[in-house]
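quick one: pyridoxal-5'-phosphate bound model?
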Amino acid sequence: MTVVPSDLGDMDPEAFRRDAHRVVDWIADYLAGSDRYPVLSQVKPGAIAAALPSHAPARGEPFDAIFADFERVLIPGITHWNHPGFFAYFAITGSAPGILAEFLSAALNVQAMLWRTSPAATELEEVVLRWLRQLLGLPAAFEGVIYDTASISTLHALAAAREGLAPSVRTHGLARRTDVARMRVYCSDQSHSSIDKAVILLGHGQESLRKIGSDSEFRMRPSLLAAAIAEDRAAGWQPLAVVATVGTTSSTSVDPVPEIAELCRRESIWLHVDAAYAGVAGMVPGYEWILRGAEQADSLVVNPHKWLFTPFDLSVLYCRRMDLLRAAFALTPEYLETVEAAPVRNLMDTGVQLGRRFRALKLWMVLRHFGADGLRARLAEHMRLARLFGEWIDGDASFQRLAPVPFSVVCFRALPHADAAARDPETDTFNERLLAAVNASGEMFISHTRLDGRYALRLAIGNLRTTEVHVARAWDLLRQHAASLRLNR
Ligand SMILES: Cc1ncc(COP(=O)(O)O)c(C=O)c1O
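yep, here:
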């Protein structure tokens, strides 16, 4: 047993046991009743910082005091993503098995840069990503790697694409190069801003990203993509990659991946599929079509932290050419050289960061706790609730649905009066006020977007504690507040 002088070591083990039990009790109560808090934090900017001391304490404090401040000062400044009335952005769940895994992961404090710095972390990542790949019906040619977010997954996918096209960039960079053609990345005008950020970070500049128009259901138009590629080639651009999205951020539309994949194949262009939110729905019977064509992609990102009940953060990049990713980033200084009894995978080789958290543990526990059937049933239920909400919107003449509902998100708006014109600025303002009013209720939290120039409210379902009762309550609140705003116009 390790003996450390008590004033120089970690927290006393018995104190840890007592306080940890307290924290677990708190978490269990929280998960059972997160709806006792306002879902959207109601604090004013600066209030939390002002309630905290301006300097770190000189002497250690008892956990009781720290925990009391956690509850008194910090909790009011929390927006509760684990609240059943959370319908904003993409609603997510930090599920109980995932929370338990995070607890254990923190205790082990694994840093999985090398296989030997925790063989289980490296090998579990491989196993669990194989399980997920099989659930999604993706081919075995895809090797997976875990990053924190989809933004980072996509950045790495595009870095691999560039490595394939211009390997000299790793050594010589891009500045003042006349021997490297300007490169172009294509995505739709509905794609996520992480694609813009990736091209910025890779040094190509935002002008290297060409946004392709989408159709009336917000899907990329392949004919416009083909024309853009031809035009760019004629003007001396080198196409680098096409990013197709399965589940766009605003309306969750699905780009026609089979046609886009065919075009990429003909043109020898890297295809990256951004399935960060909706990809997991591909495991639900009847939804296999959403990943059709993705089997031809070079890379695909899917985020278990979005809609697979895995506590934030955990994003998965599947890549057919992991060798290119390694060629782009592998770099082993002397102090990290290792020799093992057999070839091993060192996770530090597959990206920018050296250190890596043991994220695979939570995905493993989530997949095992719910099982494939349990996950499918929960995803299907969220989609049923979204369709139901969409039907309520369709059945009420004072509301208007603004996009199809392929998954668990509904885009809609309220009409201030019967003759509200399609692009009427008054309708936009009315909905901005409606959003503020329902979010101030503390019972629900929705967000917004703009579709076809119109201000759209977005109701996203993705929390395991959200039931039909909560969705019905959200609908009641929306109708009540819209009615009172109409009266007070
Ligand atoms: C389609 C899509 N791609 C990428 C992202 C970025 O996700 P992350 O926060 O994991 O970087 C999002 C975020 O909502 C998204 O909707």
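The longest strand covers residues 238-245.
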